UniProtKB/TrEMBL annotation:
Residues annotated as domain Glycosyl hydrolase family 13 catalytic: 24-423
Family label: Belongs to the glycosyl hydrolase 13 family.
InterPro entries named in the record: GH (IPR017853), GH13_cat_dom (IPR006047), O16G_dom_2 (IPR045857)
GO molecular function, one term: alpha-amylase activity
Name used for this protein in its record: Alpha-glucosidase
Gene3D superfamilies linked to this entry: Glycosidases (3.20.20.80), Oligo-1,6-glucosidase, Domain 2 (3.90.400.10)
GO BP term (any one): oligosaccharide catabolic process
Length: 549
């Protein structure tokens, strides 16, 4: 039997996504060309040369559609246009063309589980009344036992049903402003077919699918079990709104549409699924040969900086994804999680929780973030870089309460601050805010820490030891080295405890020291790159080295 992963190395460039390094742009916070304090499409365009020079293969742009931005744009009011705050469709067309000219692919974000309450179809549904065709595009239901139709909780706090004036309730698994589409209605299915084609025809190379595991619901609407007296959002097998079998029919349909583009110059279009599903056996269902091509590996993001944890995640992921012929992906941070420099500077067990209340050593976090970058980029498959990862940005945990914008803050009754701390605008240049985020001195929509001047792209560009220079060097080697990207790894039997060491053919070895003492470097021809200074044939703690062997 042929080995699907090994075979892929000889397949045409159509399989670029199997080893792509994808850079996530959160448009509000990336770069502001018009100086209104909010990032925009022309800001991204101006920074395309930076991204090409960094050495990534593709850019994924978080939602840029018209939206009241009540969930940062994941509340879409029109799937076929650009938010006027961010620019115009003409700007988007120009961005796609300019990116392609620089050899960068463009992925955009599809949000199919819900829209914004400002979407015209939801507005029409509100007016049309119970039992109407308009309401059937969403989940409208009558009161049950004097309350909402089910006990389902919403993602950002509170229940998942909102009652309207005529007494009916509508379902919103996320914010109250994000009504869920009814994917049992053929009009919804056809609408999303048309949205995919709209953007594919404009030249986008693919989509990241938001909450790719939630579109299908159990139509009998059963309650979820209680945990500690509260209804759970846990993704247990059989959960009525997560990982229902119906999602796979939708993905197969989209895959067929993407494959229709196989004969265009760019080749077939691609998808990456956002589905926080564990274990990897479940995620693998989304990347079977006739479904989405890839999925974010959030087990890697969730793993603590611990050799045993990481090894388990790497093995489990690759075993399960390779079994269906899909590449693994590696993710350390995104716009929903505490930045990994901060997580890695904390006690292992607290990594993803407790913003602002956990003691954090940011120097240690930076050292580990460097080591993690070289681990991530050496592993087989694709890799994601969240904007600012390459600058070593920490989470901003002391944003004043009055600027917090994530719906989590309001919906949790001001008990959970939410995700704004990883969405602070990028520092590009200069010595004080706005650090070149926009022209002039106007301040960005979220304030930047005053002490970020050493983290700007400009200040790091000239420093060979900077975080940015490490990323650039790693991406350059990754691009040229035949062992890196898609393929296999073999664990080295001679690695001491607490050390991750693997070989990739031809002639590449990656060694990560997560033990509590320096270790001797294994025999090698040459050091290709190290995340920190190597002392005399020794690999210090929290350091990764790439070796030619
Ligand atoms: O996130 C889906 C998701 O599972 C997250 O909401 C996660 O539960 C939460 O961020 C934990 O803090 C996607 C987007 O990435 C996120 O930004 C959106 O808010 C969400 O979908 C709704 O569209």
């Amino acid at each position: 039997m042929s080995d699907p992963v090994a075979d892929s190395r000889t397949r045409p460039a159509d399989d670029w996504w199997r080893s792509a390094v994808v850079y996530q742009v959160y448009p509000r916070s990336f770069a502001d060309a018009d100086g209104d304090g909010t990032g925009d499409v022309n800001g991204i365009r101006a920074r395309l040369p930076y991204l090409a020079d960094l050495g990534v293969d593709a850019i994924w742009i978080s939602p840029w559609y018209p939206s009241p931005l009540l969930d940062g744009g994941y509340d879409v009011a029109d799937y076929r246009d650009i938010n006027p705050e961010f620019g115009t469709l003409a700007d988007a067309d120009a961005l796609i063309a300019e990116a392609h000219a620089l050899g960068l692919r463009i992925l955009i974000d599809l949000v199919p589980n819900h829209c914004s309450w400002e979407h015209p179809w939801f507005q029409a549904a509100l007016k049309a009344g119970r039992g109407s065709a308009e309401r059937d595009l969403f989940w409208f239901r009558d009161t049950k036992d004097g309350g909402p139709p089910t006990n389902w909780p919403a993602a950002f706090g509170g229940g998942a049903w909102q009652q309207i004036e005529d007494g009916q309730w509508y379902l919103h698994l996320f914010d109250i402003s994000q009504p869920d589409w009814n994917w049992d209605n053929p009009k919804v299915i056809e609408e999303f077919d048309a949205i995919l084609r709209f953007w594919f025809d404009r030249g986008v190379d693919g989509f990241r699918i938001d909450v790719a595991d939630s579109m299908a619901k159990d139509p009998t609407l059963p309650d979820v079990p209680l945990h500690n007296g509260e209804p759970t959002r846990e993704k247990y097998v059989g959960n009525p709104f997560y990982d229902q079998p119906g999602v796979h029919t939708i993905h197969q349909r989209w895959r067929a549409i993407a494959d229709e583009y196989a004969d265009t110059p760019q080749g077939a279009r691609v998808f990456v699924a956002e589905a926080w599903l564990s274990p990897a056996e479940r995620l693998a269902q989304y990347v079977r040969p006739d479904e989405l091509q890839s999925a974010f590996n959030f087990d890697a993001l969730r793993a603590t900086w611990d050799a045993k944890d990481l090894r388990e995640v790497i093995d489990h992921t690759t075993e399960n994804l390779w079994a269906v012929g899909a590449p693994a992906t590696w993710v350390l941070s995104n716009h929903d999680t505490i930045r990994h420099r901060t997580r890695y500077g904390r006690d292992k067990r607290d990594a993803l929780e407790g913003a602002g209340v956990v003691p954090t050593d940011l120097q240690l976090g930076l050292r580990r973030a460097r080591a993690a970058a070289l681990l991530e980029l050496a592993l087989p498959g694709g890799a994601y870089i969240y904007q600012g990862d390459e600058l070593g940005l920490p989470e901003v945990e002391d944003l004043p309460e009055d600027v917090l914008d994530d719906p989590t803050w309001e919906r949790s009754g001001h008990t959970v601050r939410g995700r704004d701390g990883c969405r602070v605008p990028i520092p590009w240049s200069g010595t004080e805010p706005p650090f070149g985020f926009g022209p002039g001195t106007g301040q960005p929509w979220l304030p930047q820490p005053a002490d970020w001047s050493g983290l700007t792209a400009e200040s790091q560009a000239g420093d060979p030891d900077s975080h940015l220079s490490l990323y650039k060097a790693a991406l350059r080697i990754r691009r040229d080295h035949p062992a890196l990207g898609d393929g296999r790894l073999v664990w080295d039997a001679d690695a001491p405890a607490g050390v991750l060491s693997f070989t990739r053919e031809p002639g590449f070895r990656c060694v990560v020291n997560i033990s509590d003492a320096p270790v001797t470097l294994p025999p090698h021809q040459e050091v290709l790159l190290a995340s920190d200074q190597l002392a005399d044939g020794v690999l210090p703690v929290d350091t990764t080295v790439w070796l030619a062997v």
